[in-house]
Amino acid sequence: MKFTIALDVGGTHMRIALFPENSLVPVRQTRVRTYSDGTTGWERILPLIEEMTRNGETVDAIGIAVPGSIDPRSGVILTAVNLPEWVGLPIPDLIEEATGIPAFMGNDANLAAIGEWQYGAGQGHQDLIYMTISTGIGGGVISNGHLLEGHLGLAGELGHVTLLPDGPLCNCGQRGHLEALSSGSAISAYVAEQLKAGQPSSVQPGADTRAISLAAKEGDNLAKKAFERAGYYLGLAITNYLLVFNPSIVILGGGVSMTGDLLLDPVRKTVKESVISEHYLQDLVITQAALGDDAGLYGALAFARASLRS
Ligand SMILES: [Zn+2]
């Protein structure tokens, strides 16, 4: 029997799993810190691969999801804020040289889109938008049954579109991006700012999105307003994506999406009110992701299997 290895590299942890052919149930998996002794040389992947194949399993491919942008032609990492040591290196080639196993690497949000498409909420759709809403906002677009990569693999940066030119500062340094208005950190920052301005609320200063969502469910007005505002801007962004990509499904993943209707209700309302034609809403599904934290790992698996076939 042949096996495929999937690796999901995050800012703090890496997860690796060994999947038998045609199966979604890993026979072996482990999770380690991304940084060890303060370093994260790409060579740290090699002992993990060895551990996965400790009984001599034959591996046909390795799929790797990383938080950065990767040139799809050369496999070179162009940018990766959390993995500066990996930038400029053709990691898939280096892994293949060291192990003899073909390796395929992609942006984690792009691969999560593939994961939800192949194995999660997006099964059966050919035009899909996936967004991950957590501390930041990332995404991926499947168009006509293909991952949209763009000229240099930079497509799908759905969190850094400008919605308010003079709006709040984004993590990227620009102003008024979706990420600065609808991400978890944006929701927390908005509540903190309103508390400072004297708005009455049961929410404590410094509260995270989860605490704010609990307060909103208990009827706290400021907390409710924070989610309505985040959902409103997310809805505006999604309306823009509908016009450009005409998807049949928009899947929202990441920690903030776990709040469910608290975020989804204002999103759906805004989309309905701001879209230019009812036709964009025909068959359209706006829903929560199905794979949760596993989307990146399953995306890496689907990506490796698909890359091997093509
Ligand atoms: Zn930005």
Question: What's a quick, concise take on this entry?
Answer:
By secondary structure, the protein is α/β, with parallel strands linked by helices. It contains nine helices and twelve strands.
What global shape is seen?
globular
In DSSP terms (H or I, runs of 4 or more residues), the helix count works out at 9
Proportion in helices: 25-40%
Distance between the termini: 21 Å
Biggest sheet character = 5 strands, mixed
Strand order of the largest sheet: 3-2-1-4-7
Radius of gyration (Å): 20 Å
* Cofactors, ions, other ligands: zinc ion
Write down the overall mean pLDDT: 95
Low-confidence spans = none
> Helix/strand/pairing class, anyone?
alpha/beta
Estimate what percentage of residues fall within beta strands.
Answer: 15-25%
**SSE ordering:** EEEHEEEHEHEEEHHHHEHEH
Let me know the number of strands: 12
Question: If you had to describe this structure to a student in words, what would you say it looks like?
Answer:
The protein has 310 residues and is an alpha/beta fold. The chain is built from 9 helices and 12 strands. The protein has a 5-stranded mixed β-sheet with strand order 3-2-1-4-7, with helices on both faces. It has a 5-stranded mixed β-sheet with strand order 10-9-8-11-12, with helices on both faces. Strands 5-6 form a two-stranded antiparallel ribbon. α8 (261-274) links the parallel β11 and β12 (285-288). α3 (108-119) packs across α9 (295-309) and α6 (209-217) packs across α7. It is globular, with a radius of gyration of 20 Å. The site of zinc ion (ZN) has 6 residues, from loops.
